[in-house]
Amino acid sequence: MSELAQGQHSAPINPKRSRRTLYGIILVFVLPIVLAWLVLRLGWFESGVLSHGEWVEPAVQLTNYPEGKWSLAQVNSGPCDEGACQQQLQWLDNVWQGLGAAKLKSQTLVLDVGTSSSLADTTWQGLTMPVDSKQLTDIKAYSGHWLIVDPTGLVILSYPQMQNVEDSSIAMGLNRDLKKLIKNSRYQ
């Protein structure tokens, strides 16, 4: 007991074992960094898609937007008496219906850039908003697109309209993006 009290150890230090421990610690810290560098350098990693639509650059602020809800919008530039236009409105409404509980924080909207009420002969139940003359050229550029508008009236994402039922990935992407935006929104 007196030997232990004087600071002497009972077992000798094995230099091979301590060197192995040192190499193990270095390996644990350095190996992940080297592997991450290799994955990025060799192109094995493809970054994930954050949104399915295209960001509207520069963003367009709608001046007479009824603030408070996210909107799924369709740009209408003429009379909607054709079957294709009415089909687009129906598909847009179906996307909105597919939002589930997020439907309460969103609405459907038609941005009317035509000269007269282009939805007079339809059964459209959503909102229709004439576009301000200052924004006419900005919004007309998105004719034939669906848009996501934030609760303050800022147009942020654009999606091509579906041409047939096989294009349902567009609707699903729009639905997913809007659900994510509503879930992560600090508005409301």
TrEMBL record:
It comes from the Bacteria. The chain crosses the membrane at residues 21-40. Keywords: Membrane, Transmembrane, Transmembrane helix. This is Transmembrane cytochrome oxidase associated protein. It comes from Alginatibacterium sediminis.
